[in-house]
Amino acid sequence: MSETVLYHVEDGVAVITLNRPEVLNAVNDELGFALLDRIREANRDSAVGALLLTGAGRAFCAGEDLKGQLEAMERGRADLGDVLRRRYNPIIRALKATPKPVLAAVNGVAAGAGASLALAADLRIAAETASLVFAFVHVGLVPDSGATYFLTRMVGFSRAMEWALTGRRIGAEEALQLGVFHRVVPPEQLMEQARAWAGQLARGPYSLALIKRALEFGATHTLDEALDYEAQLQEAAGRSRDHLEGMRAFVEKRAPGFERR
Ligand code: LHQ
Predict the structure, then answer these.
(1) Which CATH number covers residue 220?
(2) 64 shares its domain with 98
């Protein structure tokens, strides 16, 4: 298995680390396909309750490997649409489709498709030194890997337009104020806090999976459709063992022991 993505499971959490620190974890074919494999592996593993995505070294991810891409272009072998369809889009779809919560620990700069990757997680905890750079414009490209979808929904159309057109560096504090980052912590505390948070998510009830689906649905459908879907999902949640356990724990004034069932 490729060393460009490190993977281990601890405390019910699949820790997935992008590992090309010498190029700020820029994504080439090897890293991209290894990442996709690891997301799928975490999804399949019943011992895994949450995914934690981070980067080795000082960056989260600098997006597409521009040196590799330039070489491919000079050899006349670059088709960016194909790169997206084969490599990035399946990664983003896999992150959104897994019923398990995905936490990104943004340890440094997240640029281009690397920023998109951070936005595709369900939650983001970031180091004070982290930043987002929608760098696509600097290399004459358009935001991709879901950036147009996530950004417009997270920060609104007007601000998304400014971030995309300028490609300026968005600091951790600004991202926190706008709810793009959920928590910002000193760099030396990032991984400890991220592991603790992901561990907590991994011990959550079966309904976490349904909550993910419910919110994605609610964000893109009408009120009538959302009401119907909520009723459908609640019916399923209501039949879960974890719902029963949650109610018993409440009545017995103790912490619930969920089993993701
Ligand atoms: C890199 C990269 C990098 C290679 C830093 N590649 N080496 C999708 C589909 C298909 C095709 C095209 O694109 C896409 C989507 C995209 O992702 S397009 C956007 C691609 N990403 C970028 O444009 C970001 C490029 N990087 C930067 O702007 C800066 O490196 C940032 C702002 C991320 C960090 O700046 P610094 O902290 O000043 O670091 P640095 O620039 O000195 O980088 C450190 C090293 O990493 C350096 O190598 P060197 O050998 O000189 O030490 C960089 O060349 C290398 N590196 N990003 N994407």
Answers:
(1) 1.10.12
(2) yes
Q: What is the pLDDT along the chain (261 residues), one digit of tens a residue?
A: 899 999 999 999 999 999 999 999 999 999 999 999 999 999 999 999 999 999 999 999 999 999 999 998 899 877 999 999 999 999 999 999 999 999 999 999 999 999 999 999 999 999 999 999 999 999 999 999 999 999 999 999 999 999 999 999 999 999 999 999 999 999 999 999 999 999 999 999 999 999 999 999 999 999 999 999 999 999 999 999 999 999 999 999 999 999 999
pTM: 0.96
**In sequence order, what E strands does 95-253 have?**
102-106, 109-111, 123-127, 131-133, 169-171, 183-185
CA 253 to ligand 1 center in whole angstroms = 52
CB of 24 within 6 A of ligand 1: the answer is yes
Establish whether residue 66 lines the binding site of ligand 1, counting it when its CB lies within 6 angstroms of any ligand atom: yes
**Three-state secondary structure call for residue 50:** strand
Q: Calculate how far, in angstroms, residue 64's C-alpha sits from the geometric centre of ligand 1.
A: 8
Which residue, 42, 95, 48, 125, is CA-closest to 212?
95
Domain extent, residue 231, equals 207-252
The C-alpha atoms of residue 142 and residue 149 are separated, in whole angstroms, by 13
